[in-house]
Amino acid sequence: MNEPLPGARVAGTLPGFGPLGYRLLALSKALAMAGGLVFVVLVAMSIVSIVGRKLAAAPVPGDVELLQMSAAFACACFFAYCHLIGGDVKVDFFTAKASARTIHALDALGSLLFGLMGAALAWRGTAGMLAMKDSGETSIILGWPIWLAQALMIPGFVLMALAGLYMVGAHLRSPAVGAVQEVTP
Questions:
Q1: What pLDDT, in 10s, does the model give residues 76-98?
Q2: Considering the entire predicted model, what is its pTM?
Q3: Residue 106 to residue 142: CA distance in whole angstroms
Q4: From residue 21, how far is each of 13, 114, 169, 170 by CA, in Å?
Q5: Nearest alpha carbon to residue 157 among 67, 71, 50, 73
Q6: What are residue 145's phi and psi, to 5 degrees?
Q7: Dihedral angle at the C-alpha atoms of 77, 80, 81, 87, nearest 10 degrees?
Q8: Could you list the residue ranges forming a coiled coil in this record (predicted)?
């Protein structure tokens, strides 16, 4: 019976984190879990392929192609969630004695750059995907269209851009004193 009150802030979140942020957090968490599940399946496939290659000279056909295409998608799934929970690598040596206002301003700038990078990756990823689709390029062993793998990365990059841009506002809305830096997953 420890349910939060409606409208109450989740423990550990930035004070400027609003209802839209929690929806974005839930969506990015679901995408990150999907990426994690893809990695688990890839590990299982690799084990089956390696054991099959060593014991029966029968690896999984196209295992390297599957690994490359699927790992690219899975990696793109984690960026937004990591940023929303404050899991980015930060070197706070220079800001250890800075005020909370200064730290929020710098974090807002970092989030802006993160969001712009996500938008650039989504834009150029889409352009590359369309060019690959037009060229009809396929993988060598399985014959799968390469553009599909690139298309699967784009939602992760779009969510990365949205997370970065949302966190700009969350940092700017946070009060200067007593603000917590991380979001509870």
A1: 999 999 999 888 887 778 888 88
A2: 0.83
A3: 47
A4: 10, 16, 10, 8
A5: 73
A6: -65, 130
A7: 120
A8: none
